[in-house]
Amino acid sequence: MTIKLFQIYDRTAAAGAGPILTERREAPAIRMFHELLGNKEITPGKYPDQFDLVCLGSQDEDTLVITPLNPPETVATGAEWIQVQINRGAQGAASLRPEAPLTINPR
After folding, report:
1. CA–CA separation, 47 vs 12, rounded Å?
2. Model confidence pLDDT, tens digit, residues 23-68
């Protein structure tokens, strides 16, 4: 079985932020990213437009071999999340919190 490796990328710092996340599919990683963006108590929630979710590659669970993506693939962006929230009728990006789960097409 293969798992995907994800990390949040802080565009202001030009660096990865936090641990590497492992998921079999993109949808759970995107959901977690959106939850972080909706939490105004933490940095990604305060500045959601400055963060992206990237896929770093994959790992074979049996052999532990990691296959990197070079360059990493952007899976979701904070800017896209903000636009979805605005389209839902939010009054501004600073006070955003998702009202319902976003529809995600799994890859």
Report:
1. 10
2. 999 999 999 999 999 999 999 999 999 999 999 999 999 999 999 9
Burial call 63-82: b when 16+ CB within 10 Å, e when fewer: eeeeeeeeebeebbbbeebb
Q: DSSP states of 41-57 as a string?
A: TSHHHHSGGGEEEEEEE
Chain CA centroid to CA 63, Å? 27
Which value, in Å, is the radius of gyration of the alpha carbons in the chain? 14
Domain spans, the chain: 2-95
Per-residue model confidence as pLDDT tens digits over 81-104: 999 988 887 555 445 455 544 445
Residue 10 to residue 68: CA distance in whole angstroms = 19
CB atoms within 10 A of CB 83: 13
What single-letter amino acid sits at 20?
I
pTM, whole model, 2 decimals? Answer: 0.79
On whether the CB atoms of residues 61 and 5 are closer than 8 A, the answer is no
